[in-house]
Write the structure tokens for this entry.
Amino acid sequence: MRSYQSLFRTPEFTPLFLTSLVKGAAQTMSGLALGTLVYAATDSPLLSALSMFGPSLAQVLGATTLLSAADRLPPRATITGIALAFAAGTAILATPVPLWAIFALILLLGLVASLGGGVSWGLLNEILPKNGYLLGRSVFNMANGLTQITGYATGGVLVTLLSPRGTLLTAATLYLAAAITARLGLTRRPPRASGRPSVAETWRTNARLWSYAPRRNVYLLLWVPNGLIVGCESLYVPYAPDHAGLLFACAALGMFVGDVTVGRFLPSRVRPRFGVPLLLLLAAPYLLFALRPGVPVAAVVVAVASVGFGASLVQQEQLMALTPPELSGHALGLHSAGMLTMQGVAAGLAGAVAQLTSAGAAMVVMAVASIAVTVALSVSVAGEREERRPSGGGHGEERAVGGLGVADVDG
């Protein structure tokens, strides 16, 4: 599968795509509105960052308790139910509730969302042929980038015209539309795996996925470096309160460019070589925030940096090559949950550093940490590849998957 046209001719791809698109618009608008609402009420960069990215922290709870359900629940019903839960929760957030209730509801919604990634991406992997996943996921990422550009821009306008609470109600309506699209557009399918979901099964599968060293390295590359940079993004509101929507939109534009480049134009034979360089590109431009640039320069910086988010496509392709098909939903759910958890942790850490210093200084700290982690992981992967390289034919043949030395069988 090599063309976008062939993707949209694939049954069920379009309704799944539209559901994700509408949910993404709702998420960007509600996140900006909620962050603005909390910052106006508390004048706290930490609480503002946690209100926008706090749901991600609940992903770790879902990853350790609920994730076995990603392959054991019917996809259409689950995707529809999650969208309905977010519609109701976002509508409640639009009402005058106490601050503690806002964060309690954010935690609950994050726990519900922990199933979303595994179910949706597992269904995408099921719908598309094996060689179509990366192109399909790149289309979702590109659409997500465009949705963030328009969503943050529209959200910024709506926050001004309607108020943050009015923007939250608009987002709740979009979540309801996503639920209707999923229910009417997707086909009823059986679960991908048999058996009842349970905490014990979640732990067993997590342990199996995590125990295989090449797959573990891919997870770390997916989670940590870009999670730290999302910590930088969580500070756009305190860095430029009146222009945060512009910064978010420029970051989304850069991510769109990166996804188009990796998903459509990089040949498969050279794509693995770009994983680490893209992660370094993701972090390095944020070092310029040490100079406290004005909004126009800051917008260019975040756009250039966000091209590096294309690295996740390279690593997701590696992850699928290393994972048995019957565990694809769980594996992708673990990726999504771990990534969002790291984003929530990084948002809290960045907010705490900004509370003690400034938003610009905190961005620099997070960028330095991201670069250090990327370099350390790339050295670890290279060392492991050398150790696994056969000498004299005594250890069996290896194949290279995405630049990692990977044995032919699952470890």
Observations:
- Residues 391-411 have pLDDT under 50 and may be disordered.
- The CA atoms of residues 26 and 281 lie 29 Å apart.
